[in-house]
Amino acid sequence: MNSEDGKLTPRLHLGRRLRRLRERRGLSLRQLSDRVGGYSHSYLGRVELGEQLPSEALVEALDAFFDTDGVLAELLELAHDTLIPDYSRKAISKEPDAERIQVFNSSVIPGLLQTQEYTRATFQKALLGECEERIEELVTARMKRQRVLDRDDPPFYWGIMDEAALKRPVGGTLCMAAQIRRLLRLASRPHVTVQVLPFSKGAYSMHGGGSLTLHTMPDGATIAVVESFDSGEPVESPRRVLELTQRFDMARSLALTDEESLDLFRQYLKEYDVEDAS
Predict the structure, then answer these.
(1) Percent of the chain topping pLDDT 90
(2) Which domains, ranges and CATH numbers included, belong to the chain?
(3) H or E stretch including 143?
């Protein structure tokens, strides 16, 4: 539970803070459970031990009960940040301030566009041997990131995906049907553009796999992250960012238009609905 330099992780710090707050009130875990809405005492115990992160709803209830002015919520935010790999943490931390987010993905639906079920199915297959609690923490962290698209002043979002992301039935047909419906809903927003690079275009500049994310900041600077299935590389060198932006633009030039992409989404949705009905 400690970091490599021996310091307490935000997860463990949150648990210890909660335990101290509870003990100062002279409460058992069962008594605390009764006072914060009936969350199980075993769940609270795992949170105190740092074995599981609490939900946002639980932290809100705990902050209110102990009158801690959002301290536990701040620790939860830090704990969620540590779930993000080091190579993309800096870029992700800039995401809420970005004026434009551009993403290309060669194998899965881009993260900010995923449904909860699709995200869960992806992590379950990608993180072999991970416990369900860890998986749920990662799912929660990704869902929280998606709020950037729901703000009153959202950034411009431009997502491009290989058609393979639609063809592969991650989580099964029901999951994929729900995922495509979400794509259709998001693509209808004025600040969101989603395109598909179809199989018919053959090879392309990022055909080797992985994903590319470009965050354009208010000062015009661009931060890039290149990821493969288990590693990544943050990029800030202007020359390298320019090269990656060129690769993104080349992929975009081969992609279907937004309207053509919507038609392809609908086509795949019909196929998944038919398979599910059968």
Answers:
(1) 54
(2) 10-82 (1.10.260.40), 86-277 (3.30.870)
(3) helix 132-145
